Every structure is written in structure tokens, then in C-alpha cells.
Amino acid sequence: MLLFLSILFLPLGLAEEYRAPAGVRPAIRRPGAESILPGGKIIAPLGRQFITGPGPFGLAVSPNGKTLITTNGGPGKHTLTVIQRTDASRWQSQTLEPWKVEKEKDDDEDWLSVFMGIAFDGDKSIYASEGNSGRVRLVDVKTGAKKHLFRLNQNGFNDSYSGDLAFDEKRGLLYVVDQANFRLVVIDTKHKKVVSSLRVGRMPFAVALSPDGKRVYVTNTGMFEYKTLPGADPKNPIRTGLAFPPFGFPSPAAMDGVRRPSASGDEIDVPGLGDPNVPESNSVAFINVEDPSSPKLEGFARTGLPFGERSMGGSSPSGVLATADRLFVSNAHNDTITVLHPVSRKVIQEIQIRIPGLENLRGVLPIGMAVHAASNWLLVAEAGINAVGVIDIASGKVLGHIPAAWFPTKLVIDRDNVLVANAKGHGTGPNAAREGHTTRTFQADLRRGVLQMFPLPGASDLPAFTAKVMANNGFQKARTNPLPLPAEIRHVVVIVKENRTYDEVLGDIASASNGPAAGVWDLARFGAAGVVSQNRGKELKQRLSLRGINITPNHHALAARFAFSDNFYADSEMSVDGHHWLVGSYPNPWVETTIMAGKQKDFRMPTSAPGRLRNIGSNSSVHPDDQLEAGTLWHHLERHGIPFRNYGEGFELASVDEGPGLKPTGARFFINVPMPDPLYRNTARDYPQYNMNIPDQFRANQFIADVNKLFVDGGQPFPRLTFIVKIMARFY
Length: 732
Hints:
By secondary structure, the protein is α+β, with helices and mostly antiparallel strands. The chain has 13 helices and 41 strands. Among the domains are: 144 residues, 7 Propeller (Methylamine Dehydrogenase, Chain H), CATH 2.130.10.10; 183 residues, no CATH class.
């Protein structure tokens, strides 16, 4: 993403060219060697590597150091990877699916979405959060059998989502983050009961326990607590929902609330969001647990940059680590580590992680951390640059970076060995050679993580490792200056297609007017000689299959008529992160864990759990909590005075209903969720978003009508950038 941001956010006149280190080489997956990622970055992780299940965001080591476990999120693959030492140098790996070993009578496998919370109880048992079921399971490491099941949905709480956890083995206390109910839950494991819970901040994420067991620290990555609209009824969306988000953020309406007509014409008092910088947002909660039956909130410490003049978003504190005299909090949006006093909540230090030559840019995305006491080093999982950062705690200086696999999330140091959980491993590589590739288009279905293991390097090793990280990310300036944009280009039109890959549609194009194209012909099932088959649903008695059909004649005509640049890739895996990348917004840890959890962080209504109103499921657009320090593409355009008009992008937000009969926008909203304000003010109100119940012919008609009204008959100058959403139907 930094490669993109180097163009997007540098001041005019200071642009320099940075190139993808892989050049024009395609993605390739080579565990144990160098891999090439879709965006052209290279990964070459240091040390030994063990393949895990998809999306590990949790990592734990047994007290004797002989067993390592990662938690792996879906879609549909919620597992634990167990790696055990068999002798001094040999390790054996196995995958546990504990929810298949011994099911509860009320188990619903689709509701289980482990991705983060894990802790050992001795050497043979582990606690693992189940996510969407709101439970924590005590599991036998060897067999995966259930030893006990702790339910968070009790004492008046429902719709819980069990996330990160910490275990105090001495007192037998388990501290679990309930992301949905914005609380910390305290479990007495000796008596096998929930003893208390305490409300913390907005969208709680990571948890840490002080070494003396007296305090628990919980990071809050959210900005707002969203509210339902008066009278909103998901069973009657056509009449009771809003056809468009109620306001843009920031704005007076977003702060204080506003009256808006529902689709039926009734006026609705939309609640305001309030101050984005309240203590509960983008902060860490300090909780005294000396009496576990009555935990006390001592206060909040906000970390990183507040929303305002210097930042268009929150800090997204995504990792927390406690030592006897310091508390470390990683601010994913700001590329900083806030160091706090663990009792007084005062800031001791603010450590900036910056890339030489690109200091004004962000994208390192620090998450998990670990301290090596002997060297006084802080190690940081730098998910955005596929590295482990090394920081001298005394000086706050970044000493260097160590190569990791794709998207490192969690770190543990055990007996001078560094263990790193990498959520996306070596990527997936091309799917053309895979059996059944024509139906396996979502890369998240194919993803596997990597557990990385290496001895802690010495200070003298860091320069060489750092140089490797810089080269693998493309952080070295090109030797030539960037070519100027052609003066003839005055307007840019972006047309976004959904649900299909380049090769599926255009892979059969061998060459264009400007040279050969790089596609895979046998993947072009929606090309000029495509395949249409009817194989959906078990009830079908026979299958209809047509071959050699010209499915996309318009696409191929456009490709033949104009200059053609083929086959570019971003790091996205599905709609959620794809639409963030598309508008210049690096998906933060909350968004990524939504994907890792198999889209199980679902929206629910009615609910008493405020986090369920923010959980986005498959919804794709940027929420205020996701906005980065520099904002989005829309903020960049407004900063530079570039007029734009948007048709359909950016309002597929939490709570959206995309059912039939919802023209013209294709949406109904039931909560006070906003759009980025520049986008809100420049989006057509009569053009639909990603609702597949609405044909593209309707979109074309609405687009033409809006252009005629504003720019032909209305006389307004045509915008420099026009952004248009279209749908590529889910053919089977």
C-alpha cells in the first residue's frame, strides 16, 4: 500500500517513483523460498516456517516451550494449528478442529469463528475463544476434545462475541474481551463460572495482563457507538429504513443528529454520533482486577493522534503489551507505539516507525509486540510491510527490521527464539493450475498462514535484514524520474466491476493495440468464447451447460478500441478489503480480522450488543473507524481541489439491506452510520450501489439522467474524476 500512497499523498512537485520489486513477474507461492505477492512485493521470511490454517491472529507457547498453537480463522476453516517439539530440532504439526471432535447439542458450526483469543492452562490444555458463539472452550491439546465450555451469554448479556483473552494461571482467572458488548468478562476457571464483567470502550480488541496480575488493559479501536434509527424494522426495510446514509462525517449533522425522511416519507430523528475523541474511543482501558468479582475501571488513556486537524481518522490501537514499568500500545493507523506508565496512565514515550525517504506516509501497520528483556528490545509485528520491527526501548529508536511472511500479526519470544504468526503466509499464488479452479475465485478460500521461528538476531545482523525488508517492499527509489502525465488527459472515469477476476473475463485477449497481454486463456469462462452452466442447488435434476458463448462482447470491444493495461493486482481477497484498497484505505486490523473470522462478525438487529451494529459482515465500504490518518481517496481529491462525482461506491455500510424492490439506491439503512463527508457531498442519490437485484441497465439509465441534468443541461463542468459502480453477475 505504501507504493500506492507514495503517489497518492505526496505534495505536488515532490513525486518520486517507487516500483514494485517483482517488476512484471506474476505472483508465485513458494514456502521456504521467496514468494511474490499479488501487488508485486516479495517475501522471504527469516528462519523456519510452518504452514498453519488460514488467518492466524492468535499465538501461544506452552510453559515448557514444547508446544506452539495458532488460532486460524475461516471462511469455513476455524481450526487450531498445533506444532509440537519431538526432539531437540524436530517439530511435528497437526490441525485440530475442536468443534468437530465433540459437539454441543446447540453447536452451529457456521457460528464458530476462532481467530484471536488463545492461552495455555498448563502444558496440555488451552482456552480458545469461539467468536460468534460468545463462548470460550477449554480444549485438550493432544486430542482436541472439549474439557469445558464457558458461555458469555448470561447475566442479561446476549449476542456476545468472544475475542482476545488473557489468563492469570496463579489465580485461575481468565479475562475475555466481548467485542459485541463492549466489555471485559472475568471467568473463575477453578469454579468454572463467570464472576463479573465490566463495560470498557468502543470496539474493544486486544487485552494484556500486568505481570503482578493486578490490572488488565484493553484497547478500544472504535470511534463511535452506533444507534438504531427510531422505528427501523429490518422486516419492513422498504418503508422504515433510510434510502441513503443520514450524513457525512465529519459534519454538524453527524455530531448533533438530524431529521431525515424514511423511504415512506416519515420524518426520522437520526441520533448524532457525538464527539469522535471521547475517552472511550481509540484508547486503552485501565482496569483494576485485585477483586475479580468487582473489577474497577480506573480510566482511559487515548493513544496516537486524535481525529482532527492532523488526522482524518482514529489511531486504531490494535496491540497492547504490559511489563512491570511500561505499557506498550501499537497504533495501527499512525505507525506509532505509545508507551504509558502502567498505573498513572501518563505517556512516557511516543515511538514513531518511519520508512526512510517516505517519512510522511503511513502503512507499516504495527499490531502485536513482544519484549526481549536481556537486550531491552521491543519487537513489533509490522503487518503492512511484512516485517518484524526492532526498537530499543531506552532510546525509542527503531534499530531495524527483520523479514517476515505476509501480514505478521502476533509475536512471542520464548527462550531467545522469536515466533511470528503471519496471517496470510506466502499468499495463494495463481489458481490456474488448481483442480476445480473455475469455481475457486475468492483467495480467502485458499489462504494459509505461516508460523515463523528464528533465533533473535544480534545488533550486527540488523542492517542486512533491514536492507532486505526495504528491497522486498520496493522502498528504494527508481533510478529514473517518473514520466509526466500526458497533458491530454483531463478526465478519468473509473468503472468498478464486482465478483470476477481479470482472467475470467479478459484472459482470452492475446494482444492489444499497445502490445501482448498477460492473461490465462483457459480461465476466461466469461470471455468471448465463454461457458454458462446451471449447477446451483441440489434440487436441480439436470444441468444446463452452454459453451463457446460470447458473454462479454462490450468488455472486449472496449479493450480492443482503447489503450490497454492488463492484469494489475491489489492485496485484497474479497469485497470487504477490496473496496478499502480501491479507495486508498489500507484495511486495518479490525477489518482484516472480520475477514479472517469468515465474515462471521455479523450485523444483528434488534440487539442489546452495540458491537453487533458495527460488525460489517461482507459490507465493504469505509466506516469512520476505518479512516486512516490521511483519510481516503475522497479526502485526497478534496484537499487538492479536484472535482469528482460518485455513482454507487462507498455506502455499502453496516446495517445495509440490499434486498429486492429498493430502487433507486438499492439500499436501506437502520442505524446512524455515516459516509466520509467529501464522498457524501459528491455522490448521486438516484444511483444504486452493489445490489444484485438491480440490473445494470437501470444503472446506465440513472447515470445518463444525472449527467444530462448536471453537466449537459445544467452547465456544470464535467468532473475530473467520475467513479461508477457496475455489477458483474454471479454466473455459474
